[in-house]
Amino acid sequence: MAENTFFSKIIQREIPADIVFQDERVTAFRDINPQAPTHILIVPNKVIPTVNDVSPDDENTLGHLFIVAKKLAEDEGIAEHGYRLLINCGAHGNQEVFHLHMHLVGGKPLGRMLSRNVREE
Ligand code: AMP
Description:
It is built from three helices and five strands, in the order αβββαββα. By secondary structure, it is an alpha+beta fold. The chain binds adenosine monophosphate.
């Protein structure tokens, strides 16, 4: 079980969060600063700091993130119209919390993936 990140404390229910799903491998909770009507973070219970730290042992857990994302999209009623799954990595990826997590974002048209100014920089 995770023990030493901010998200670990949410996973272990030491810090309050709006948890929408939890099992032995992952925990999902609503983002505190939602960018769309649905914005959920799906987090491995095990601390993996970034995608750069992923190992072959993590393959089942990381695949499970997609199974949970699909279920939550259905639960949220956004599966039919589509949504975005996003994992930030490191400084250029603008990762803020170094406990790997997948963003599930949807509930409105999201536009292009990168804003014009980022694409042109
Ligand atoms: P990232 O930039 O991919 O590391 O995303 C970190 C996300 O965590 C941001 O979207 C934050 O809004 C979100 N976040 C930070 N603190 C909390 C919290 N206590 N509960 C829920 N979401 C949080």
